[in-house]
Amino acid sequence: MTGATGTLASSEPWDVLIVGGGPVGASAAALLQLATKDARQPLRVAILELNRPAATPPDAPLDSRVSALSRASERILTAMDAWSLIPRSRMQPYERMRVWHESVQPRSTEVLEFDAAYAGEPNLGYIVENRLVQTAALTAFESAGGKVIAGELSRLRVHDHQVDLETTTGALSCRLLVGADGARSSVRESIGLTAEKSSYRQTAIVANVRTELPHERTAWQRFLRDGTLAFLPLADGGSSIVWSADDSAATPLLAMSPGDFEQDLLRQSDGVLGAMKLRTERQSFPLHKLTAPRFTAHRCALIGDAAHVVHPLAGQGVNLGLLDAAALCELVTAAHRTREDPGAQRVLRSYERWRKSEIEPIALAIDAFNRHLAHGSGPLSRLAQRGLALVNRTDEVKRFFITRALGLAGELPKVARHPPSTDRPSIS
Ligand SMILES: Cc1cc2nc3c(=O)[nH]c(=O)nc-3n(C[C@H](O)[C@H](O)[C@H](O)COP(=O)(O)OP(=O)(O)OC[C@H]3O[C@@H](n4cnc5c(N)ncnc54)[C@H](O)[C@@H]3O)c2cc1C
Questions:
Q1: What pTM does this model have?
Q2: How far apart, in Å, are the Cα atoms of 200 and each of 285, 316, 321?
Q3: Ligand 1 environment, Cβ below 6 A
Q4: How do residues 164-205 score in pLDDT, each as one tens digit?
């Protein structure tokens, strides 16, 4: 770190500059912008984004990149005025999850079923296209007066009082730099937070399908001996498949003809949704686990996939990232209220303590599910597979899982804690 003289940037530094306007970065920016919009001195917030998606035409077919958004995420997106920007006609509420292991029948009592009604909720969450969440958050940010700068981060230098950035479209500087630039974060690399990354040796195959039987507003997930096959219900009546298969199984699945793939889907889903027809191309994503050893460094914080990447089987990546965004916003706006620097070490330490302690146990639990339910035939795996049926019969354990599916467990940021109409981020 060096003194601030001879810096790359010439204009007034941004209070907060967020590199990466994906769903998580755009949400952090919108929350910060809205929270201080009416303050005597609003925070000056900007996003640097290299690849902003175009608006989705209302009649465009549903994209195959979708996420299951939790109740906590719904509240966060509502608090920043982005939820209402996502068209209802493209959003599918899901009311239950049915999870089973390939060793049991899909309609038997051994199938683990989580029903929203059981927790007195209308649904467990919503299946929404990723690009719609991202564009809604960017629009909410801009409507509140925020600025999205097109460009890619090339280099950065951290000084005592500010961070200077070189980008493909010019120089920038800020008092707090937020890395929201995804799993291959250049911010994380540039500030020396080398992440522990390991491959699951699995590939997620993603596509949209039309099914013979209705999805019943249900997310279906079958644990196989060499992976996990999930069907997420879509607003057009079809389903989005996420098939996390061992690499050795994924290669032939991607290479086979659409007809053969559809036959395999029917077999591996045990026919729960009847015959299937592909509606989109198959896309593939190699699966990695990643945890940054620290989520913060001097004047810098990491959020979303830049800080942690978990296996998609629990559908938690965006949900955890939105909680990072809300937690950081809460701490930065509280500091701003008392005229504290947004990049103050105290603020960043609190953020890191808060979110690391929430994420680490979740990441461990997701890994254990993947290891023992989707794989393995040892005694622990057999116990875990039988455990699914036990969870079904134990009310308290079942409620524990439903609360987690709703994203309402742990230490929640204020905006995620209450129904949105009663709690909006604000600064007095
Ligand atoms: C198959 C699959 C299924 C999934 N299903 C779910 C699910 O059901 N529910 C769920 O919650 N999560 C799910 N996830 C996880 C989820 O997709 C990620 O957690 C989420 O996209 C992370 O969002 P992000 O904003 O942190 O990062 P990203 O979405 O990766 O966004 C990063 C942004 O930064 C920009 N950027 C990158 N580098 C630079 C740079 N140098 N300069 C400027 N801009 C830059 C990129 O253009 C991008 O817009 C799934 C993941 C996979 C692979």
A1: 0.93
A2: 11, 16, 21
A3: 19-25, 48-51, 67-68, 130, 152-153, 180-182, 186, 204, 206, 242, 285, 304-305, 312, 315-319, 321
A4: 999 999 999 999 999 999 999 999 999 999 888 899 999 999
